[in-house]
Amino acid sequence: MEAKEIIIEIPCPSPGSPLIAQNLSSLNSQLIRYKPQICDDSQEFDGIKTEREIGVPVLIFLLSLCAIFFNAIAWYGVSKSKIFGKSYGIMMRMRSSVEIVAALITFGFFGTHVFFGYSVDIWMNAALTTFYVFLLSNAYLLHYAISINRLVSIYFPMRYADIFEEKKCVFVVVALILIFSSIISSLSFTDRCSYFVFSKELYDIVPVGCKDVKSSKISNHIVVIIWAVCAFSSLVLDVITLLRIAVYSRKAASVHHNHGSIPWTRNVRFFLQTFIVNLIICAGAIAVQVASERLSFSNGFIPYSLYKMHEMCNLTRTPGTNLWREYLKEKYGCVFEKKPAQSVNPVYDVVPSKPVTIAAIILGLSLCAIILNALLLHFIRKNRIFGKSYGTLLRMRSIVEILASFIAVGFFSTLVYLDYDIPIWANSTLTSFYTFMLSNAYFLHFLISFNRLFCIYFPGRYDEIFEIGWRIRIIKVLVLFLSALITSLPFYTPCSYFMFSRVIYDILPVGCERKESSKATNHVVVIIWAICAFSSLLMDITTLTRIVYQHVAKSRTSALFRSRSSWSKNVRFFLQTFIVNLIICAGVVAVQVLSDRFESHDTRFYFALFQVLLGFVFNGFVPLVANRELRRCRCCRSRINVESSK
């Protein structure tokens, strides 16, 4: 059935008419053309009137007052007590200060703006909202710093005072947090179409300034991604800290029993001060991704003319399409026809021409990944320069990437080029196995980055923590178990089986006519992969900071850096994880920023499957090039401990 063209006349404001038509076209699959009227800002929009919701501003008032009250008490208590120490106490007081000021803005501006509905000059709104974003960035970075503080305090109590209790360290941490928060809050001013303002109808911060919907996405996405990285990294650090507390709780209780106190309870209380908040933030971020369709009608962007129109903004806030349909039926007499029924397997509805280029790229990258990772696996087994744990992680990563590359070269490339029919169950089985291997690779990236960070920051404790056989076996089992758990998520609902599309050149959830039902598990899997990738990149940057600091500051006094080989080996080991993590994270960011261009199959391929296969190639290529010792077969019996690279 052909789509019926509907010609409607959208009243003021005319700058918002393209946005309305675009959303109606995408949601209703209708060919809608708009005919804007010429009007000025004083003309009122004849839209749907909705009553002002009193509950939202009242809730803002109550939460803001509670935040101000409790943070003020916390600030006073921490400043009077000495149990938090110097660095931890300063971070807690700083977090309470920024949250008190942020709560004052939400109470004095956000709440009153929603409750009274008064008009605010856009520059005043942008200034207050940008300052609020600055405070929010401070809070996220402080959460991350506090989580690192707790992790070091639990894992390395003897080194804690040397690292955190010096005035220079505290000053540097505070200065870095303020600098990075200023940079994050200033990103919105890099594009004249992305000034942050608070919308009294959406109850949220939105970019505003231009008619073009796509112009404000870049800086907005970067800010949100930075916040998400800080939140999820803090949660990961908290979970790692909790594992240490749980493992040694009984031992600590028995050791300190004669003293009449159990220090691990204090550790648990300190842990809960960061974990609960980080868990709430991360749960909210996941909910935003899973329920993204229900959050806004215009993908979070409101042109300036719509920002000034109360009725239009209320329409933007409505989650569904039925309200629009009823309004257009009543106002313009539009008739909406139902879309034709979709087949159970929409991936195969379109048969493309044979894309030789895409198939050749998949074939070439997969073969390169297989050859390079096979060589790396062979040389690691012959030359034990990486030690026990680090070498085991690299071997596991090479094995899973070889298997994933075999699926890409034997199934993905042939399906794209030959365009043959394959049963749905076979496609789903092969794609699920590929997803399992990909999950293994992401987890191993995270563990390798954590291994390097620990090796550089705490070389004296490395052997007793990582170079123990039973712990390495536990790590293997955990990686396989978590990867299998992630792979099984799509099978919890019959509408989300992962299958490879020869049309889209990507993995898609299929199985039902309703695509919305398959998005939850799909989003969860992608979010877990993104958490591993960004956390690995963040740990790599932290490791690089330590390497550069030690090389510059201690090159004359420390015997560790007297030879150039130790410095170069640290850098080479660092590059083995950093380059791949940088490629993966750049691809994730590009996917978010260029999401509107994913209708192009080539674009989707280059930002999805291509960057994954390219990462496989770099994982095999960089260690071979960076470590000449791997290629010296005569040294197959020599073992250079991983500590020599610290």
From TrEMBL:
Coiled coil: none annotated. Residues 372-626 form the G-protein coupled receptors family 1 profile domain. It holds the Pfam family 7TM_GPCR_Srx. PROSITE patterns: G_PROTEIN_RECEP_F1_2 (PS50262). This is G-protein coupled receptors family 1 profile domain-containing protein. Keywords: Membrane, Transmembrane, Transmembrane helix. GO terms for cellular component: membrane. It is found in: Membrane. The chain crosses the membrane at residues 54-78, 98-116, 122-148, 169-189, 222-247, 268-291, 356-377, 398-418, 433-454, 474-492, 526-549, 570-593, 605-626. InterPro entries: 7TM_GPCR_serpentine_rcpt_Srx, GPCR_Rhodpsn_7TM.
